[in-house]
Design a protein that fits this description.
about 375 residues, Immunoglobulin-like
Length: about 375
C-alpha cells in the first residue's frame, strides 16, 4: 500500500507573517495606550541616571525582540504543525541537528556576554566617585528620619538639615543640591539597614550599619527648581513609612543662599528658657528618662530637652490632649544636641507627651 507525500498548506508563510504583525501590533498598542508605562522607568534627571536608562533601553529592546521571536515561533508552530483531520500517521521525526544546536547556544551566549560588558561599563560609571567633588553631603539614616550634614572640602561639618518631605508652603525639608555640579553623598546608619532611593535618579544604595557607602551624582542643569521625592527602600521598622525625604534642585545662586541660611540656623544658640516652670527631659536609648511630668495649669512652661542618642537618631517632644489633638508641635533635634522648648499655657487635664519619630517614646503630662 503506497501513500503520497503529505501536502504542506500553501499559506504557511502568510500565517507566520500575520502572527508577527499581530504580535508587533499588540506590543505597540501596549505602549501607545500608556499601558506599558509601568514597564518603563521614569525619565532620568541625573547624568548617572541617563546611563542606567540607556542600559535599560538596550536590555528592554533585546527582551522585546526575543519575545516576538519566541512567541511568533510558538504560534507559527502550533498553526503550521497542528493535526488535521486527514492526518493518519505521525510526521517524519527528526532527532538532533548540529547546526540548530550551535545556533541556539552561540546566539544566547553572545547576547549574555554583550549585556555583561555594557552592564559592567554602566556600573563602573555610576559607581565612580571623584577625589574632590563640588559638594559633599553626609547622609545619616536613623530610625525613622533622614539627616543630611553638609561638609566643606576638608570633610568638616558646616550645617545639618533634617529631612521631612519638602513643603511648598515653608520651602523647608529635604536635601538641596545645585544643578550641574557633582554631589558626593556618604551614607551611614546608627541602627539598622536602610536604603537611599530616588526614583527619578534611577538609583538605590543600601545604608548598612558599620559600613560607609559612597556615591556621586550630577543633576541636569535643566532641572533647576524641581523637587524629587525620595524614601527609604528597605523595611527598617514600624516607622519605615515615615522615612521620606526630598531632593531639591537649585541653581548655584539659589543653593548658595539656601546653604548660608542653613549654616546660620545650625549655628544658632538655643532659645533662652522663659521664667516659670522648667522641666528637664533627656532622651537616650530611644526612650525618655521619665514617664511622667507635671506643670501648673494656665501658665507657660518650658522643657529643656537633651538628645543623648548618637548622630542620626532624632527626637522631639510634642504634646497631645486626651482627644488626640496635638497642642504642641516642636522641632526635631539630631542626636548629641539639646534645645529649649517654650510651651504655651494648658488648661487642667491629662495630656500625653511623645516623640513624633518613635511611637514607643511616650509619657503622661499632668496639668493641674
Amino acid at each position: 500500500m503506497s501513500t503520497s507525500p503529505r501536502k504542506r498548506p500553501a499559506p504557511d508563510a502568510l500565517v507566520a507573517g500575520l502572527v508577527v504583525v499581530i504580535l508587533v501590533a499588540l506590543v505597540a498598542a501596549v505602549f501607545l495606550t500608556g499601558a506599558g508605562r509601568s514597564l518603563y522607568p521614569p525619565e532620568a534627571v541625573t547624568e548617572q541616571g541617563r546611563e542606567v536608562r540607556g542600559l535599560y533601553d538596550i536590555v528592554f529592546a533585546i527582551a522585546i525582540a526575543i519575545f516576538l521571536l519566541v512567541e511568533g515561533l510558538i504560534i507559527w508552530s502550533v498553526l503550521r504543525y497542528r493535526r488535521r483531520p486527514t492526518d493518519t500517521e505521525l510526521p517524519v521525526q527528526t532527532h538532533g541537528n548540529n547546526l540548530v544546536e550551535v545556533i541556539w547556544t552561540v546566539i544566547p551566549t553572545a547576547i549574555v556576554l554583550y549585556m555583561f560588558v555594557i552592564s559592567w561599563q554602566t556600573l563602573n560609571h555610576v559607581d565612580a566617585v571623584s577625589a574632590r567633588p563640588d559638594i559633599r553631603i553626609h547622609a545619616i539614616a536613623g530610625q525613622f528620619q533622614w539627616q543630611f550634614e553638609y561638609l566643606d572640602q576638608d570633610g568638616k561639618k558646616v550645617a545639618t538639615q533634617l529631612a521631612p518631605e519638602y513643603s511648598v508652603d515653608t520651602g523647608l525639608g529635604g536635601m538641596a543640591v545645585p544643578v550641574g555640579r557633582s554631589v558626593q553623598v556618604t551614607l551611614d546608619s546608627p541602627d539598622v539597614i536602610h536604603a537611599f532611593y530616588v526614583p527619578r535618579f534611577l538609583f538605590k544604595r543600601d545604608v548598612v550599619p558599620g559600613q560607609t557607602n559612597t556615591f556621586e551624582f550630577t543633576v541636569d542643569a535643566t532641572e533647576a527648581g524641581q523637587v524629587f521625592r525620595g524614601q527609604c527602600a528597605e523595611l527598617c521598622g514600624t516607622g519605615h513609612r515615615r522615612m521620606l525625604f526630598s531632593v531639591i534642585a537649585l541653581s548655584q545662586a539659589d543653593y548658595d543662599t539656601w546653604l548660608s541660611a542653613l549654616v546660620e540656623k545650625s549655628n544658632a544658640t538655643p532659645p533662652p528658657l522663659p521664667s516659670g516652670t522648667v522641666l528637664n527631659v533627656t532622651a537616650e536609648g530611644i526612650k525618655f528618662d521619665t514617664a511622667s511630668l507635671e506643670v501648673p495649669a494656665d501658665a507657660p512652661f518650658a522643657i529643656a530637652f537633651t538628645n543623648k542618642d548618637p548622630a542620626g537618631v532624632t527626637h522631639d517632644i510634642d504634646v497631645r490632649d486626651s482627644g488626640g489633638t496635638v497642642v504642641e508641635n516642636e522641632d526635631v533635634i539630631p542626636g548629641g544636641t539639646s534645645t529649649n522648648y517654650a510651651m504655651n499655657p494648658l488648661p487642667a487635664g491629662t495630656y500625653t507627651f511623645f516623640c513624633s519619630i518613635h511611637s514607643n517614646m511616650t509619657g503622661t503630662l499632668t496639668v493641674k
